[in-house]
Every structure is written in structure tokens, then in C-alpha cells.
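Reopening this one. Same input as before:
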Amino acid sequence: MSADVLLEVRNLRRYFPVLGGVFQRKLATVQAVDDISFSVRRGETLGIVGESGCGKSTTARLLIQLLAADSGTIAFAGKKVGTRGGIDVRDLRRQVQMVFQDSYSSLNPRCTIEDTIAYGPSVHGIPWASARQRAREILTKVGLDPALFAARYPHELSGGQRQRVNIARALALQPQLIILDEPVSALDKSVAAQVLNLLIDIKRDLALTYVFISHDLNVVQYISDRVLVMYLGKVVELGPVESIYGSPRHPYSRALLGSMPSMDPDRRRAQATLAGDPPSPINPPAGCRFHTRCAHAEACCVAVEPPLLADGDHHVACHMLAPGSGHSTALVAA
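Same output, byte for byte:
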């Protein structure tokens, strides 16, 4: 692992059984995350985008070990998670924290804001008085006056204020990496912009690393350094944000970015860029999983799964760009 890589994921897979019948037998399997690999560099923000059901949130829960992977490895700061001689889950969660989408259900309604933030450090051995003092300092850092908010309960706060509390709770253990799963999708635009700017300021001040998951392509473009595009449990494209948004190479990425609303009347589309719904993850298509909706699909796309190939810092899984793949637009292998 390179010294500048903080988190490295290799061949990560998680399937969920579908149970039914009187005896709750296994009827099928949902392939939520299927053999994905990527890395997160120190100090960067990696954005993860894709349609609902593509595996973004499952990936987040696998990274923080809220879900156990069926196979694959996760390494943090060069140490494999959950292996002998590596890093255990308790130590991982000191270094990696998560902010969830639903700011209200993430908080204990019976705990004050101060106690909510102080709880994590106290569990990890910090005396309660010191943990509460740290909670007050972090509240100030996220823009909430401790004198006004420390003794309040979640139901007394607005959605934006609750999300600031969730960010404060994530910061309480002084982590290196924060995973943000749709952190602003439930907020109105003006409040979401304030929270995004707060996240950028905190990242700069505390030298943090983010994994930012969202379906909002404008938000991901604003906050991310690199972008990972997922489709039906697979990584289809990965690269710098300028490269992904300026020159997307995978047909799905182009369709996804083409669906972004435009304020310019001359750039508005009269037709949808992508037709149909994604196939079921219970029985995904063979070969390239996007071939059922792709205008460029050929026989090789149906028969063979495309590898994720690198072109500099840009990675794409598409037969059109793979030399010798058999696709009519691909280069002939040397």
C-alpha cells in the first residue's frame, strides 16, 4: 500500500439472502456489493455516486464494519481490518466515523446533545468530565453555541442543527476518516450549502479524509477530489472529479451526468438520457451489468464482464475502451 493511501479496499463482496416461506428458507440472493476495489488517499474527499440500489450505502457500512463482508479485504493505514497483526474493529472505529442521512433517528431522543457527543469518547476510556468538555469544544467547532445547545434534546433542534450534532459526534474521537452517507439530502438547499461549507472547513482545519456518498451529482462535484461511479454493485468508473465530470468515459456515467438539471434553457434536454429501470440485483445480467440499458452494447458486453482498466488516474470498466475486447469500437490488442 502506498504511503499516501489511507484506506484500501480489495475485492469486497456482500450478498444478502432473500428468505421466504413457512420455514424462512433462502429463496434468492441480493448481490448488493460484488467484487469492488478502490483506495482512498490521505486528505482527499472520494465521492461515491450512482442510482438508488447500486450499493453505495452497503459499501459505507462495510467500510466501518457495521456489516461483515462475505469476502475481500479492507486495509486502514496499511493494516488489514480484522486480521491477526492488523487492526481490530474497535481500533478501526476510533479512526473511522460515520455520519448518516437521517439526522433525527441517528440520535438518542433521551440524551442531551452534550451527552450524545461525550458518550463515544467516554466508551473509549476518556473520563466523563473530560469527554463533556471535549463535547462543548466540538459544538463550538460545528457552529453551535454550547451555552444554548449542550443541554437541549434532539427534538428541540432543526434538521440542520441535528446534522451538525451528528458531525460533532463523529469528530469526538478525533478520527482520520469520516464516511458521510447522504449527509445533506434531507436538508433544504440553503441549509445543505451551510453544512457542506462546514464540512470543507473542518476537513481543512483537522486534516481529515472523507468518503462522501450522495445521489446529488452537483453536491458530489462541489465537495469531491475524486469520484467513484457505481452501478448494480459494481464500480464502473473512477477518476478525478474534473475528468469524470468533464469527460466521462463509461456510457452509464455519461447518462448519469447528462441527467443533471441545467439552469440554461439552451442546454435542457427534451428526452431522458437513460431509459428503463436498473435490473434486479437478485438476478443481475451476465457480462457487463449495464448492457441491458446501453445503446452501444454488443455480443462481448453480454458474454464477458469488462475489467476495470486504468488510463493514468482514470479507471473505466467498459469493453469499448478495452483493447482486444471484441467490441467494434475497441482498439485491437497488440
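So the earlier flakiness isn't reproducible anymore. For the record, The chain is about 30% helix and 25% strand.
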